Amino acid sequence: MRTMTFVSGAVVSALFASGCSGEESNDDTTTQVPTIPSAGDTGTTTDTGTPFVDPLEVAAIGWELKAGWNQELNQLEGWLNPDINGTNGGQPWGSVPYVLVTLANLEYFQGAPGSTPDPDNYCEVLAFFDYIATSQVGEEFNYDSGFGGTGTELPTLAFFEGVLRFIPETADERCSELDSDVFPGADPYELMEGMRFGVGFGALSPYLLETATQAWADDGQDFADDDQAYLTQFIAVNHDDGSGGVSFPAYDWNTAFYVETDYTQCINATYTSTTFTYEYCGLVQIDETDPANPVYVSGDTTVGPVHGYMSGGSWWLEDTPNLDLSLLKEDAIAF
After folding, report:
1. Whole-prediction pTM value?
2. What values do phi and psi take at 64, rounded to 5?
3. pLDDT, tens only, 30-75
4. Which sequence spans correspond to the domains of the chain?
5. Residues in Cβ contact with 291 at an 8 Å cutoff, skipping those fewer than 6 apart
6. Positive or negative torsion for Cα 175, 181, 183, 186
7. Cα–Cα dist 71/201, whole Å
């Protein structure tokens, strides 16, 4: 289902406000444990005093990759977030590549474009992405029918395939209140932990370019002033191929916003679970001309090789009737 939103340089700083970082917990003060704000109190109280919560009936699922991308080395990388909120002693904090997974009900899509969704209508959870670099073309999604592809191939600049490893402590409260008739345990993990997942980058698809151009025009702006910062972020998950097997099409569901990133900036973090020290490099650049509304400094994807932070943003959450959830782990790479 269409999300009817677009990640632009004016709004991407919301990531910093939410603290969604995607890194493992550690004992170095220059990093943070990934968190997402709780959905809060989602239920009412019955006459017996027993909390009652309407289950989240998931109508669609979306995936957004947040990662540094090194086009020359054909790999995803960590990056550094500036401490714009002053919560880390002024020091940047590191993140590793992660995927933001959104599970939403029908009401999620019925709000006004650009409005803040009711937290009762969706949940979000982060997942680490274990991957290898592969080669796969994208496919134009059939936005007219809302199902399948048009058959038009779209070239990719890079493609990565692997599995998702969920981080339950980052989940909204609603992620434990899913419809248990569909999701065993009322959470996404049994069906989706270790699911097969792919992501690629390529030039903006015709649909995304047309839609972005119109969105900018509706806001009194010219997308040509910003288009160099955007790529398509192709998303691949298993679908039923109609013949008893699975297909793995990479559809143009997302955009990727390229942020200027300073790779002279690095920090070290030591993880208590392994005593392994990880070096994070690449400080994303922020324009704080308006301190109340800091924004990313957009990069230029036309000047290669691209090397910097890429923030994925969904234009489409896949309808669950289009997915056989029992097939999500089929043919997944074993790590």
Report:
1. 0.85
2. -130, 120
3. 333 333 222 333 333 334 444 557 999 999 999 999 999 999 999 9
4. 14-32+55-327
5. none
6. positive
7. 10
